[in-house]
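Hi both,

Apologies for the delay on this - the queue was longer than expected. I finally got the pyridoxal-5'-phosphate-bound model through. Below you'll find the protein sequence and the ligand SMILES exactly as submitted, and right after that the C-alpha cells for the full complex including the ligand.
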Amino acid sequence: MELFDVYPLFDIAPVKGEGIYLWDDKGNRYMDLYGGHAVISIGHSHPYYVQMLTKQLSQLGFYSNSVKIPQQQELADKLGKLSGYNDYHLFLCNSGAEANENALKLASFKNEKKKIIAFSNAFHGRTSLAVAATDNMSLKAQVNAHEDIVFLPLNDADAVTAAFDDTVCAVIIEGIQGVGGVNIPDASFLQLLRNLCDQYNASLILDEVQSGYGRSGYFFAHQYAGIKADLITVAKGMGNGFPVGGVLISPDFEAKHGMLGTTFGGNYLACAAAIAVLDVIEQEDLIRNAQVLGNYFVQQLQMIDGIKEVRGMGLMVGIELHENCTPVRTALLKEHRMFTGNSSNKNTLRMLPPLTITKAEIDMFLEAFVATLKTQTVA
Ligand SMILES: Cc1ncc(COP(=O)(O)O)c(C=O)c1O
C-alpha cells in the first residue's frame, strides 16, 4: 500500500532529537526553529518528558473515559494553576481541530444560536466546523460550506461592531494568527470582542492551539490584553509531540453526561506527556525565557536590512520579506541545516523554536539568516 500523497516533503528523514536539534538518518544535525508546526515546546526528547512517558507506559497506556483516570485531574490542576484559569473546567481531546469543534459546539449548546464570527486569514483546523471557520477556500469541500460563518478583517473594530447582533453564537479568534503569518490582534480589539460577546450573549472562543502554552511570553497570548475568554482551545505545545488537545471551559457552562466525548482523549499517556510539559515549563521558567529571548530575537531582527516587517510576541515570530520567502527557507535548510516555517502569507517565515532556546542558539540563527538574505534576496 502507498501513502495517500497529501504532503509536500523535504527529502530528510529525522531519526533522533535532542533539545533544539534533530539528526537525520545520515548523521547530519539540524537546528529546529519550527518544532513541526509549533508542537515542540520543551525541546525534543526532554529527559524528564521521556522518563514520565516511559514510566506511564510501563504501568498502563490506555483505558477509556468510563473509568477514573486521576492523571486527568492532576493535569487540570496544574494547567489551571499555570494558566491562571483555575476556576475553569477541562475537556480533553486529541487535536487542535477537535478542540475547536467542541468549543464551537459548546457555545451553541449554551446559547442555542448558530452565527459564528471568524477572521480573515484564520486557521482553526481541517474538520467540519473548524475548517468552515478557516479562511482558506482551498481546504473546504462542498460539505464544509457553512452560511452562518462570517469572516471579518482582523483588528477592524467598526466591522465587528456592525456585524454583531443577538443572533451571534460565538466569536472564534486565534491568540496570535499562526498559519496566517503571525498576525497579532490588538489588545483593544480583544477587549472590544469581550464586551460585544457579553452584550449580545455570545461566547468568546480563543484558539490558543498554536499561540498558547507560554509561546507568547504569557501562558496564553490573549492574556496580554487583560481579558478572559469563555472557551480556550489548546493542543500542539501541550504534549510536545504526543497528540493531545483540550478545551478550557468557563464555569458558566453546565456539563451534562454525554454532551461531549472521545475514545482516546485524556488517556494515560496523553496526560503523562501533558503533565511533563507543564512541569518543565514551570521548573525551567520557560514562559519568562520566551518573553526575554523573544524580545531579544525581535529586536535583533529589526536591525537587519532587507526585511519588510517583523511581527512577534515571545517566541512566535513572523519575518516578512519583500518577496516570496521560499528561497531563503530552502537555503537555510540546505546550506545551514536550519528548519523554519512558512505561512499562508508567502513572504512570511514563521519562527517557532522550542521555549528552551538560548541566546547563543538565536545568535547562530541570526548569523545564518543574515548570510542567507545577502545571497538569496535582491532587496
Ligand atoms: C491556531 C490553530 N488552530 C487549530 C489548528 C489545528 O490543529 P490540529 O492540526 O492539531 O488539528 C492549528 C494547526 O495548525 C492551528 O494553528
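Main takeaway for now: The chain has a mean pLDDT of 97.

I'll put the files on the shared drive as well.

H.
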